[in-house]
Amino acid sequence: MAFDPASLTFDARGLIPAVAQDHATGEVLMMAWMNAEAVARTIETGRVTYWSRSRQAFWVKGESSGHVQRLIELRIDCDRDCLLLLIEQEGPACHTNRRSCFYTALREGEERIVLDPMV
Amino acid sequence: MAFDPASLTFDARGLIPAVAQDHATGEVLMMAWMNAEAVARTIETGRVTYWSRSRQAFWVKGESSGHVQRLIELRIDCDRDCLLLLIEQEGPACHTNRRSCFYTALREGEERIVLDPMV
C-alpha cells in the first residue's frame, strides 16, 4: 500500500516534528516541523521541505541559502508522531552557519559553545 | 552563570521536544517531551526523565522496564526550543523492544520495518 502522509499523527496545529540527521556521519543537524503537504513535497522532490511556523509558509530548506537537504530516507517512529530524516546536507544546517543547530552543550552546569561556524 | 531550564523556550503546554541519541553509535533512538522540571531532574539525577503527555506525569525512562537512559551530555539548539540528549541506553529504547523507535522506513513508496525487536 502506498504511503499516505495523512496516516501520520499530527498535532493540533497539523504539524509533526522532523529530526534531520546526516545519513553518513550520524550527526543530528536540526529539528523542524512539517505538515502533511510538506511531507508529501519532501518525498516527491527529494528536497527537504518544512513548514515554517513563524512565516506560516512552506520552507524549502536551503532555497535562499543554498544549504539544501537531500532526502536519503524517511523514517517514522512507533507512535507515528515524529519523523527522522536521513539526509545529505549541503554546508551548514544552522542559520548561524554551523553544521548543526545543536552547538550548545551543558558542561559542568554551564552552557558551552562546542561548534564553530563553518568558513 | 549556572544553567536555568526556565531559559529554554517551551511551547504553549510548557513542553520542549527532546531527541535521544546514542552517544557512542550516533543512532537516534526516540523523541519525547520534557517540561522545565523534567529537564532539571534529568540534569540533577543523570537519569533521563520525560513528561508523559498521555499520563500527565513525570516519566523516568526505564523505571519499570529497566531500559534506562543515562545522560552523557545535554545539547540545546539555536532557537532554544529543542534538546538533544546524548545518552547511554540500556537495552531497547522503544516499547516494541526495538533499539530505536524509528524502525519504519519509507522505501520505494512503501513502509518497511527495518529493525527487529531485541531478544
UniProtKB/TrEMBL annotation, chains A, B:
Comment on bound cofactor: Binds 1 Mg(2+) ion per subunit.
Gene3D superfamilies noted in UniProt: Phosphoribosyl-AMP cyclohydrolase
Cellular compartment(s): Cytoplasm
SUPFAM superfamilies documented for this protein: HisI-like
Residues reported to bind Zn(2+): 78, 94, 101
UniProt KW keywords: Amino-acid biosynthesis, Cytoplasm, Histidine biosynthesis, Hydrolase, Magnesium, Metal-binding, Zinc
Recorded catalytic activity of this chain's protein: 1-(5-phospho-beta-D-ribosyl)-5'-AMP + H2O = 1-(5-phospho-beta-D-ribosyl)-5-[(5-phospho-beta-D-ribosylamino)methylideneamino]imidazole-4-carboxamide
Coiled-coil portions: none
Annotated Mg(2+) binding sites: 77, 79, 81
Pathway: Amino-acid biosynthesis; L-histidine biosynthesis; L-histidine from 5-phospho-alpha-D-ribose 1-diphosphate: step 3/9
Documented EC number(s): 3.5.4.19
Keyword Lyase: no
Cofactor needs: Mg(2+); Zn(2+)
Enzymatic class: hydrolase
Domain Phosphoribosyl-AMP cyclohydrolase: 30-103
Membrane recorded as keyword: no
InterPro entries, per database record: PRA-CH, PRib_AMP_CycHydrolase_dom, PRib_AMP_CycHydrolase_sf
Record function comment: Catalyzes the hydrolysis of the adenine ring of phosphoribosyl-AMP.
Subunit structure: Homodimer.
Assigned protein family: Belongs to the PRA-CH family.
Protein name: Phosphoribosyl-AMP cyclohydrolase
Organism from which the protein derives: Cereibacter johrii
